[in-house]
Give the backbone structure.
Amino acid sequence: MTGRVFLLGDNVDTDQLAPGQYMSGGIAELASHCLEGVRPDFAETVKPGDVIVAGRNFGIGSSREQAAEALKLLGIAGVVAQSFAGIFYRNAINLGLPVLTAADPSPVEDGDTVWLDIDNNLLDLSDKVRAVWLDPLPDNLKILLADGGLVPHLKKRLAAERKGKKA
Amino acid sequence: MMGTTLAQKIIARAAGRKSVTPGEIVTATVDLAMIHDSGGPRRVEPVLQELGVGLFDAQKVVLISDHFVPGETDEGARILELTRQWAKRRGVPFHDGEGICHVVLPERGHLKPGMFVVGGDSHSPTGGAFGAYMFGVGATEMAGVLATGEIWIKVPETIMIEWEGQLPRGVTAKDMMLKSCTRLGMDGGQYQAVEYAGSAVRALSMQERMTLSNMAAELGAQAGLIAPDETTAEWLRDVGGDPGDYAGLCTDPDAALLERHAFDASSLEPQAAAPHSPANSASVGEAGEVRIDVAYVGACTGAKYVDLKAAAEILKGRKAAPGVELLVAPASKRDQDRAAAEGILGALEEAGAKILPNACGICAGYGTHRLGEDVTCVSSTARNFKGRMGAASSKVWLASPYTVAASAVTGRLADPRDMLPEAVS
């Protein structure tokens, strides 16, 4: 699936992704305010398959996983950044939102059409000329993502354990 | 054999291993899991239900209400009610309305040097001040921990931040952290373990050390450790806790470090971080003329007993400038009671302070005192991200409680050193 790139800068924080003032409402309302401070058009124009490309320290701030959940709900296929804040990174993987680091995402421009090819560690641009290499994920995170996140992963594991006990 | 870091020692023990190497991914058993009303019951219970399991050990879970306290909105009140019901049903230790989780957890004796702890909040590195490896996780991950008692962790490298020399009067741990954030940047911690050391750190009180560890979050570190010593042990005994045997809970002199950063405490001046990042700091004197509307002494980082005491040193016998709203939200009930008994709270109220609930409040964007359009605030909190404390047009400067208090008096960002009482010799 191809999507459009939203290009963001460094230090995109969790208050931009999930503003505190909407935290007591549901995730749908929160998502409708996602990134409104930096990209007022984001929540309205984002489509499933779109990709965020950002600079350093994406997701700095709070541990609120609604920051990753909002992006997932809006259909973001993945976030590619030079680096991620630690808690956001874990939250995203746990919710099944692909987060990938790339040393040099500079070939990508805002509005580009791209395809996030996680199996081949590649962010492919539709012009077939430019591409961004992604750092490969550690094996344990690949498994979590492949299972769809932590909850489905644990379900699988617990089911296997129960089966093991019965046998 | 090469020495190891404090982080490695704690993680190796929690992972049931003789030793661990930075960069390897291990599964560790948690000694304690702390959750609060926002990311806690309302978010973890549905996952536990979905998994069809209970808590791995109810006595290793601590629940603290602080985000939606005091329940000013219908939604907030509903979340608090759900939190209380859950505490009863699941049988977990629960501190309700006693203050902010990072301050309540140690003051109720739950932390002990050497523990491996997860917290459902980004400022969880605060526990590192007690020599515990404590870090923040999101709600789904916390649900996984509550279900299994385990979590995976990539063994961190250690970044040593050393402060030597004696802090001048009126200069605090908050100033040290704003300086560190500005030098290292908000990703300077690289999600590794930061460890604070040096004579200036050793000289700090326990609550000031908590400010250092707390703001390891703003450095982008996973944890913010301080090797336990007699100060730690004495504080823990005072609150009825158990320091245990902490000898050896330190980074060996020959352990490999990722980075080492040296700072001089004796030349440090009061800092102020300009909107919208804690890494935008400079000496207060360099900020120029900044008129303020609100002065806020609040949050886990900036409204503990020592912070209230610092603010009162400046505000005693003075008044907040006309037009300046002075708000004080003591970080815990225990600290507020102590401040009240010692006349500190009274001095703040005399100066015109409005005392707010022992909760996260404005710092987390909650409550009725959220900042309005175009309001400029000087705040003793940890984060001044755009829109965090209210309207996107509001501007927040971060500074120590001394500086917040001095600024409240003058109505503009002010260096507190001119207003300190005469030192008692």
Q: What stands out?
A: Residues 271-419 of chain B form a domain with the Aconitase; domain 3 fold (CATH 3.30.499.10). The mean pLDDT of chain B is 97. Chain B is about 30% helix and 20% strand.
